[in-house]
Queue: 4 jobs
Job 1
Amino acid sequence: MSSDAHHFVETLQSIGYKPAKQLTPSLVEWMFDTRTTPFLVWFSNSVSQSNVLRPEEITEFSKLEEDGVRILEADQVEKILNFSDLFNDDSELESQEILRNKMYELKGNKKLLQERKEALLKRRHLLSARLASLKNNFFRAENSQKNGKQSYHESEQKAQVANNSTSASNGRLKESVNLINSLYEESGSPDLEPQDDAVFLSQVNLKHLQKLEDRFIQEVTITVKNSFLRA
């Protein structure tokens, strides 16, 4: 068991921290395995009954505040103590004058500090408003990014479907072209054989040409119907 954990529990109990009565070193030992260990060690070594207010002292202080008694701040008390040697002077009037001047100086410093405090509060409000605006812009940008990604994926899927459909249409068109080309390469009967020796239109057999046209139109009609039925 860690000695630091034992010391920490003893410190809490010594200053009157009520929940510490139920604590044991084993319950807080895990806290000394984290980044807070230096602070906990400092707390155990620095905090004691001599520098912690007792409940009755807190009650007395609250009563003074309720009675409207003016209570000096720590820095004011320190400055007054620094001039305690003035009371050892033989000249009481001179000491009072010096003390009065110092009090005026303290009042002036208090006024300056109060003005500086108000300026800092205003600046803090402005920074808080700016931070809220930046957070709002960030959330908007994040939502826009999500919507953009979703729209991109949907467009990509639609493009893929259109591409597949185009590929299928191109395949069917290629088949149709091959079928039409076959009309010029195949002959169904001896009387439909092309006349390669014909040079002028008057040398072409009109019946033979009419049969070729009728067969071509019939084959094109069947091909187009089949293409629509497959689509």
Job 2
Amino acid sequence: MSLVAALPGRPLSEAEVAKLNRADPVRLAIALEESGPTEGLLLATDDWVKGLRFLGGAWEVAESVAVESEDDRYEGLRRCEDAIREADGAETAPEQDPSAGSDSN
């Protein structure tokens, strides 16, 4: 079973993220929320970094980056975080009204 498939079908608590940091294959687990349950998660192993989002009752991979060096890992963490935030922003952004900003008075 993959690490991602082993995650529960709900947002992770702070304690669960801390526990992931002590898991064998995980080099780093970072919650994107500052406190409380997280729906955004960065996971790093020796081989990859993944940005995960909790969506519709399951965890989905928003971005995955192969890691060959420590520099790759840090760049991968940044790229994965950006991908999660962009995906979350795209879902919550209101539809633009084409007439907004036009001066029709």
Job 3
Amino acid sequence: MELSLVKTTPVQWLQLNDKVAQGYGRNFLASIAVQVPLLIIGSLALDGGQLSQWVVFSITAYWLMALFIVIRRPRSPTRGDLIAIRFGFLFILMSFVIATCIRWTFLRWQ
């Protein structure tokens, strides 16, 4: 039994008309529906840009994670993949907020 790798270009491997949109579509829309209002609220907050910074960093980390998930399983997402796509942004945002609060706490002790 011989193992062979299929040689394809990235354009052939993941095209826009693949079933990626069918499997991930609703979850991406739900995540975008949360990201856009939070980005607007974060941009309008008068906190010196801290909330805006959290949201922008979280959006960047989320889309890198989502890209990795879709490239890894473009045609057959698992339930965990779909949950990560739908709710991953909120978990990443909470992680940034908690990490910043912990950092501020330790800086206050010094």
Job 4
Amino acid sequence: MTPLVGGDQQGPVTVGLINSANETQTFEVWVVDDSVEKIGVKDSSGEVGNLSMTPGLRSFHPEGYDHPPIAVVLPESARHVTTANLTEGSTRELTVEDPPNNPTVIISVKSDGRIVEIVTATCDRNLRYVEVTGQDDHASGAYNC
């Protein structure tokens, strides 16, 4: 596979998780190397669709599905970093130690067991920070290289 971007990662990646929703949300964080071109999104019927990875910051907001998305399906090479259940108004900051060269950070935000947003971030040089803010019906992301 062809890498999405080129560059050398220099140190850990800091991840900020913020829940601005009016309910508890679950944030799941993974890291993969940038050779991963697609990730799977499993819906409540068991069907898995693919989401293409692109350079930079990408946000996927699933709408209009007959069966709501409930899980992210990643290759075995993916490293699960954390699952954080954040109550209304709470935050968490964590560090991804020893990320792969040219890492992609993948964060899903769930509410009531369904995915409300998937955010991915990768840089052509040194991904330093990724932040995701969950809101009532979606989430937004930011990053720094």
